[in-house]
Amino acid sequence: MMMRKLKRFLLGWSVSLLLAIASFSWLAPVQAGPMPIDDQGQPKTQLSARDIFRDAYEQRYTWNEKFPGYQAEVSLKYDGQLYHGLAQVSPDFQVTVKNMDDPDVSQLVKNQLQMEIIHRRQIAFGDRHDQDTYALAGTDKDGAFEIQETGDNGESRYKVRDKKIVQVNRTLGSMAVTVDSLEFITPAGGYLTEHFQTTFRDPKGKEVLLTQDVTDSHEKIGNYYLLTNRTIRSSDPKQPEQLNEADTLIRFNNIQPLRRA
Question: Is 166 exposed, middle or buried (0-12, 13-18, 19+ CB in 10 A)?
Fold first, then answer.
């Protein structure tokens, strides 16, 4: 029972981390390979860390001001049980989930849609990150820029390679989280991650507590790309064989745009 509750809690966090951060891509051109070092041992580049992150933020795929909202039928398989219901995202980004037998499962679906909305909304960089500070920490062996962000919510670390944010690191209370982005699509006007892995660790002992492998599908419905399918494989390091079988499958069927008032 405790593992089931833990997975439900972590499920929302893993999705929120990737969808809110790892979709900040389409960066301005950056130098590949090891970064030159100045006399003080700091990385040299013509772009600042803030420039790199801001360009990424401003060029991600988002829904514009004409977004009408939509409704969909939901099919969810969780821990071997199948659930059905209805979901709606309003033009002002409110989420409603109905007709599911288990309120916890309804909340799980609602969390997925809310996390999808977080990075689809158009919010100016200055409104969200103006007070944050950024620093280039170097490059890794593959030439990825390592960027450190400091703000009101603490510190985050990113890796940026080939115009993509490929890794996110954060500490959330008693949990350290790493998100690795693995596969992407590039629809006109933006960029979407469709395969990522999330690792949850004890920030003190660095012990791996849980890993999740997530595969998404997005389809263009009307004028907007919408999440149609999510597959999540959760694995306890003490039982690594669990990763071979998906424990959470979410499908949004019969998606219909709403009519704006």
Answer: buried
d(CA 5, CA 115): 19
Sequence ranges of the domains in the chain: 2-25+43-125+161-256
* Pure H helices in the chain: 2-17, 49-58, 103-120, 125-129
> What pLDDT digit, counting tens, does each position of 13-24 carry?
544 444 444 333
pLDDT tens digits along 136-192:
988 888 887 888 988 776 788 888 777 777 888 988 777 888 989 888 888 887 788
DSSP letters, 192-226, are EEEEEEEEEE-TTT--EEEEEEEEEEEEEETTEEE
- Rounded to 10 degrees, the C-alpha dihedral 50/129/15/190 comes to -60
